[in-house]
Amino acid sequence: MANTTELTEERFSFTAGAKKNLVIIAIVGIVLTILGTFMAMSSGGHDTDEGHAITTFNENALVASIDDNAPAADEHHAEEGHHGSAPWLKRLFSNLWINNVYFTGLGIIGLFFVAIQYAAQAGWSAGMKRIPLAMAHWLPFAGILMLVSWFLVKSDVFHWTHGDLYHGDHKDDILIGKSAMWFWPLEMGSFPLFYVIRMVIFFALWYLFFLWIKKEMLAEDIDGNTSHWLKARKYSAIFLVIFAVTSSISAWDWVMSIDPHWFSTMFGWYMFASWWVNGLAVITLIVVLLKQKGYLKVVNANHLHDIGKFIFGFSIFWTYIWFSQFLLIYYANIPEETVYFIQRMETSQYKWVFFVNILLNFVLPFLLLMTRDAKRHMSMLKVVCPIVIGGHFFDFYLMVTPGVMQNDGGFGFMEIGMFMVFAVAFLFVTLTNLAKAPLYAKNHPMLQESLHHHI
Amino acid sequence: MEKNKHYVLGVYDDEDVLLSAIEKVRDSGVKIQEVYSPFPVHGIDDALGYKKTRLPIAAFLFGLLGTSLALIMQVSMLGFDWPMIIGGKDFVALPPFVPVTFELTVLLAALGMVGTFMIVSDLKPYKKPRLMDIRITDDKHVMAIDLAGNTLAKEDIKKIVNATGANEVNDKDFED
To answer: Which residues of B touch A331 (CB under 8 A)?
Structure first.
C-alpha cells in the first residue's frame, strides 16, 4: 500500500482582521492594567487586619527559630517596606516578572519540543513542528525584556540584591552563604555579575541553537536534502543536554531566588514541568485553532490524540513533581522550608490560588482528558488547553507573588490585563513568523510516516 | 464426544486481499466470528466493525475501587485501630496517604483490567486453545465463520468466501 499523498505547499496568512483583534485585546489589557494599578494605589497600605498580622508573626517566629545567631536576618522580614517601593508598584513589578518568566517558558518550550522530536526521531509530529518553531521566535524578545525588566524590578522582587544584607547591622548569614551564586567574582553585595552573565549566556545559547535548528528546517524546504534533518538532530541532541542544565539553573535564578532564604532541590524540575505542560497546551491550542480555520490538513485526530496524551501525561507529571516537593517539606517540617507553604496555604490572599492551582492543573485535565475520545476531539482540547494555560499562570503567580508582596498581594485587573498584553505580544511574534514559512515541511523525511500515523 | 462446533475457514496469504475480503463477506450478510493473523494488520478492527472496547470503563471503576480501599484502609488503621503520632502530624492526615492511595489505585486498575480482559476473552490457565489452523502462527491469515451464528447454508458461505480471493476454504469442527 505505497500510496504517497500529493502535497501542496500551505502557508498561514496572518490576516489584518486577526491583527486587529489582537490589538483590541492588547488595548483592553492595557486599560485593565492601568485600572488595576489605580485600584491597587487607592487600596494599598492598610493591610493589617488580624489574619495578616498572625501570619506575619508566624513567619518571623519561624525564621527566628532557625536563625538565633543572626538576629538581623529576621528584622529584615519584620521591617517590611524598609527599602521597598509602594505596594502597587511592587505588585506591578511582580506581575511583570511573572509574565516574563511565563512567556520565556513558552518560547523555550517551543524549541524544546522541536528538539525532542528530532532527538527521538519522531515521525508523528512531522506535520506540526512549524508551530513550536514559530513560538521559539519569542526567545530574543523574551531575553531583552527579561534583562531590561530585571534591572527595573530587582530591588523589589529580588531581596538578595540589597547590598546592606552582606555587611554591618543587616548582615544576613543565610544570604552570605549563598552570595557566590550571585556575585562571583565580584565582592558580595556589589553588582551580581555571575547572575546577570548567566542570564545573558542562557538566552544567547538558546537563541543560537534556535537559529541553527531553524536554518536546517527551512533549508530542507528548498532542496529536500536529508542532511538537513541529520544536522537538526545533531543540534537538537546538543541543545537538550544544555537545556537540561540551563532550565534548572534558570529556575533557581529567576524564580527560586525570589525567596532567597528558602530552597527546594525539586525546584528546577518543578518549573520545567510547569513550562513544558503549558507549552504543550499552547502548541495544541494553536494547532486546533489553525485546523478549525481550515489549515493543517496534514494533522488529523491521530496526531491530536498523541499531543493530547502529552498534555494528559505531563499534567500528571507536574502534579507528581508538585506533590513530591510538597510532601517532603510537609513531612520533614523544617521551619526554614515550611515557611514557603505557610505563606501560600494559610493566608487569605493566596489560599484560594493554592487550591485553584491544583484544580486547574491536575484535577480538571486529569478527568477531562482521560478518555480516548476527549483527546481526539478538538472541542474537548479547546476546553482543556485554556484551563491548563490559565492554571499555569496561577502556578507562576504562586511562585512569584507571595515572595515579592508578602501579605500585600492580590489578584485582579492588573494581573489579567498584563497577561493579556504579554499574550498578544507573544502571539504577534509567533503568528508573524508562522506566516513567513510554509505551515508544514513538505520535504520532511518523515512526513509520509506522519500522514499514515494511526493509533 | 461429538463435535458440535462447525466453522468455515477462509485462508489468505495477503493482508490487503484479506481486508477487502472481510468487507465483501460482511456485505453479503455473513457474520465473521474472528480473524486470526500472524502479525497486526492495520485497519482490521474497523473492517470487522468491532465495537469500541469498554475495557477503559472497567479500568476506571477498578481504579476508583483501589482509591476507596486505600483510603478506607489507611483511615481505619491509622485513625481508629492503632493511632500513632508520626512526625507530629494528625492521625488522619491526607498528604502522607496520597502515595499509598496512588499505588493501590494503579495496582487495582491494572490487575482489574487484566482480569477483566481474561474473563471476557475466555483466557484461563489449562484452557485448551482452539487452534483454527496451525499456519496462523506462521504466514497465513484465517477468517473463521461460525456456522451456528449464520443463517446461510454452509455451501453458500463457502462460495462467498471463495469468491473473495481466499487461497483455501476449509471446514473445521470442534467439540465443545
So the answer is: 87, 89, 95-96
pLDDT of residue A363: 96
A48, A103, A132, A216 from A100: Cα distances, Å? 30, 6, 18, 29
> Rounded distance, CA B168 to CA A448, Å?
35
Contact predicate A398/A350, CB 8 Å: yes
Peptide bond between residue A445 and the one before it cis (omega within 30 degrees of 0)? no
**CATH numbers and ranges of domains, chain B:** 5-52+128-174 (3.30.70.260), 55-120 (no CATH)
The pairing of strands B141-146 and B34-36 is: antiparallel
Give A303 to chain B, closest Cα distance, Å.
17
Q: pLDDT for A176-228, tens place per residue?
A: 999 999 999 999 989 999 999 999 999 999 999 999 999 999 999 999 899 99
Q: Which residues of B touch A372 (CB under 8 A)?
A: 56
Do you know the residue count of chain A?
455
ipTM of predicted complex: 0.83
Beta strands in A276-353 (DSSP E): none
B87 touches chain A (CB under 8 A): yes
Chain A CB within 8 Å of residue B13 CB: no
Nearest CB to A326 within list B16, B43, B95: B95
What residues of chain A lie within 8 A of the CB of B106, using their CB? none
Total length of chain B? 176
Which pTM does this prediction carry?
0.89
Can you list the positions of beta strands (E) in A303-376?
Answer: none
Q: Does A454 touch chain B (CB under 8 A)?
A: yes
Which grid cell is A90? 511592587
Contact A323 B98 (CB under 8 A): yes
Q: How far apart are the first and last CA of chain B?
A: 9
CA distance A202 to A209: 11
Give residue B82's pLDDT band: very low, low, confident or very high (50, 70, 90).
Answer: very high
In B51-80, the residues whose Cβ lies within 8 Å of chain A are: 56, 60
Min distance A1 CA to chain B CA atoms (Å) = 8
